[in-house]
Amino acid sequence: MFSFYLVSTIVVFNHLNSLSVKKATGLDEIPSLFLKDGALILAEPLAHIINVSLLQGVVPDYLKSARVVTLYKKSDKTTIGNYPPVSILSVVSKIFERVV
């Protein structure tokens, strides 16, 4: 049988501390620098949210939303196929994903 373990505050704190501050923000527009700088304060409530989500088996809707942008990838800039869509998730969503 598959099950999740509850997440400790220390694990969330370590993930917050390891964030790259150069990543783009998602729809919530919360920069990773803010989360990294506030890791000591934010780790406990974020761990609680993650644990409640795991216990209830429900992922909050705001963690499933993404900002979609197109990025130039290769060769001819006038060809639309060279601009594939990229989903940019919120930093909190990325933390949630890594912890789980």
Task: State the strand order across the main sheet.
Answer: 1-2
Helical amount: 40-55%
Structural class: mainly alpha
The rounded distance between the terminal residues' Cα atoms is: 17 Å
The largest sheet, given as strand count, sense and whether it forms a barrel, is: 2 strands, antiparallel
Q: What series of H and E elements makes up the topology?
A: HHHEEH
Kindly report the average pLDDT value. 92
**Total strand count, please?**
2
Weakly predicted, low-confidence segments: none
Tell me the strand percentage band.
5-15%
- Overall, the morphology is elongated
What's the Cα radius of gyration?
16 Å
Total number of helical segments?
4
Give an overview in words.
- The protein is mostly helical and about 100 residues long.
- It has a domain at about 10-60 and about 90-100.
- The chain is about 40% helix and about 10% strand.
- It has helices spanning about 10-15, 30-35, 40-55, 90-100, and strands at about 65-70, 85-90.
- Strands 1-2 form a two-stranded antiparallel ribbon.
- α1 (about 10-15) packs across α3.
- The two termini are about 15 Å apart.
